[in-house]
What we know:
The structure holds 3 protein chains of 3 kinds. Chain B is mainly α.
Amino acid sequence: xxxxxxxxxxxxxxxxxxxxxxxxxxxxxxxxxxxxxxxxxxxxxxxxxxxxxxxxxxxxxxxxxxxxxxxxxxxxxxxxxxxxxxxxxxxxxxxxxxxxxxxxxxxxxxxxxxxxxxxxxxxxxxxxxxxxxxxxxxxxxxx
Amino acid sequence: xxxxxxxxxxxxxxxxxxxxxxxxxxxxxxxxxxxxxxxxxxxxxxxxxxxxxxxxxxxxxxxxxxxxxxxxxxxxxxxxxxxxxxxxxxxxxxxxxxxxxxxxxxxxxxxxxxxxxxxxxxxxxxxxxxxxxxxxxxxxxxxxxxxxxxxxxxxxxxxxxxxxxxxxxxxxxxxxxxxxxxxxxxxxxxxxxxxxxxxxxxxxxxxxxxxxxxxxxxxxxxxxxxxxxxxxxxxxxxxxxxxxxxxxxxxxxxxxxxxxxxxxxxxxxxxxxxxxxxxxxxxxxxxxxxxxxxxxxxxxxxxxxxxxxxxxxxxxxxxxxxxxxxxxxxxxxxxxxxxxxxxxxxxxxxxxxxxxxxxxxxxxxxxxxxxxxxxxxxxxxxxxxxxxxxxxxxxxxxxxxxxxxxxxxxxxxxxxxxxxxxxxxxxxxxxxxxxxxxxxxxxxxxxxxxxxxxxxxxxxxxxxxxxxxxxxxxxxxxxxxxxxxxxxxxxxxxxxxxxxxxxxxxxx
Amino acid sequence: xxxxxxxxxxxxxxxxxxxxxxxxxxxxxxxxxxxxxxxxxxxxxxxxxxxxxxxxxxxxxxxxxxxxxxxxxxxxxxxxxxxxxxxxxxxxxxxxxxxxxxxxxxxxxxxxxxx
Lengths: 143, 508, 115
């Protein structure tokens, strides 16, 4: 089986779907703390977007559009997630206690900067990295 | 709130993550491997010291109060296990610098090693039974990938058995956790123990059923009879540094879980569960050692001996007297160091002579007597000769067996000790003592051999082996402080009420 | 409802074990997938089934009102699904590599390391 599907419709829509789905995944990621969403789901959406791109454009262009090795993404995400637990210790609290640093930005409202946000971004990257590692490994094995 | 408790988990996790981020630079990964495991060793010693002074160290992750949040608990037994894991990790990290081929390093050897250590330390320190499952899976996934590093046929075949049986065990564990949650409505181990103490009689049977599920699941992970087949099928296939890490740590996580669960949670029907454990221990010892007697490959002999040694540890748990638990804890301490060291020696022999087959080896003592000494220290310790560490470990266990009148178990333990000695003498005779095989069966010429025995990278072989051998000698020659440590740890294990009080803050 | 779920879980376990005992590696992996699903359903059932009461906190309150479904069991299952997804993805990659090397889909041909 070839990994690239020979379908005109898929190839045409693939270009437009990729940015749309990636934006949607970031929307899900940022919405996640109080409402349905979060790093895991968002990461799956992003990984699915790139997997779709892989099927429509072939493995080479998928690697190009990704520009980093997914394993690096995994490592950076895991580092971020682990580090997000550390700031609490400077406030004398247990690891992974949530810290909130709300920043007031006049035209937009309040930006709720917090360690759970960084943890979620870390999870997002880990999920994207690990799913794409698996998908790309299998796709390359198929040739 | 004690930050020491989380450090042995966070450090390997962080170093693993950072070395993954440096995916392309093996040089950085190599350094991070040594520094990371060194930092882990430091943090584990800090943890042990603090735990020895204060009894229990507790940390509620994310400040969520127990029993609702995830609690990290370090009691003395857990802290000892973390130190042993860190020692093994550090020794193998040094050893890998020279022994792991450069072309395999780029498949993520060092990040996986860190993740494995994070999983192992997490399992030793968690106070939450579902979290224990999660750490089990973390270390399993890392071990899967390490096991097939290199991708040879034997590795694939071994890996399929390893993966299947370990996944089966995980699912059994998960099912048991689910049933336990349905029964008690909590996942915190201390809380479970408390709730099970108040359970009414008609549900007592269900508790025993769940305890058997745990026994089977952890029995598979610990490679106990009758579900040990995955171990000898896979442990001799990967890189030797990986073998040593697995041999030192993985099965012991299963043993640790058995100790934890069957001293803290399931002590309702000791006559039934611990008698079953006693049978399991005896048969594990026997099958392991008999399997080893039939083998003629260095690492396969050692793999079968892991199984027989697991039997001794479970024997300590099964007798369930204070002295027996001291013996069990002492045995684990001795075993992890000695077993990892023996695998490291087998790798050194392979490096020097290019074979693991006893028939193709020989004459090593005449050429390099020091290697022979380095082998004899852990080998005789494994067999239990005084004054090495294994003697005291076996002595305490057998004494505990005699006190409880478990004559059959004691007989089996003594017989197995004798057969272990036979196996070690077999390796000694074949690899070191007999003349090197001449003619076509000799794998290499004399010139090639002397060439192999030079090279600066050999220091990274000798250093960890010698370090672990010295540790074995220290445990043997100054057994008293180690015994006191094991005694305190066993005392804590036999006092579930103290554990519950430390975690939940109320005396049951 | 509990009885039906118990039957479903039992059937899943039985099917999974049957598949795992076959000689084909592919069927072995299918068995493992079914087994993890069976365990998830078991947790779901053992934790107690509550229909039509999602554990949602109404506006202004700090705890859900009345009897609601247990959210912890769902969290456990979600975690277990994520983990088994990772592990099984690895298992699929593994059998693919193993098949490329050994060239047969038969466990009986894979006993070189057992003797």
